[in-house]
Write the structure tokens for this entry.
Amino acid sequence: MAIKLRLARGGSKKRPFYRIVAADSRMPRDGRFVEKLGTYNPLLPKDSEERVKMDMERVQYWLDQGAQVTDRIARMLEAAGVREKTERNNPKKGTPGKKAQERAEEKAAKAAKAADADAE
């Protein structure tokens, strides 16, 4: 059985609240899980201690058993100092989309045309 440490969503519409769980990777996101390991409340401020709560002993147990972690849980564990920080490489993150690039080109062309008209 492939175990993953991941988030299971709770809370009402537009008021998310997550449980940090150890679950079989084949189960649905909010479905059956093996053990609840903590909670994550994204509505609280980032510096709040209540935002992320984890039972670190159980998390370490599951990691020792070979459990995989999702990206979000990996970041939480890095912030807690349990895992070493991994280098992320996303070169396309800051680049605008196709339509935004087209709009920028059109705006630059209009500005160049206006500058040519003023020069004459």
Observations:
- Strands lie at 3-12, 15-24, 35-40, 52-54, 68-69.
- DSSP finds three helices and five strands in the chain.
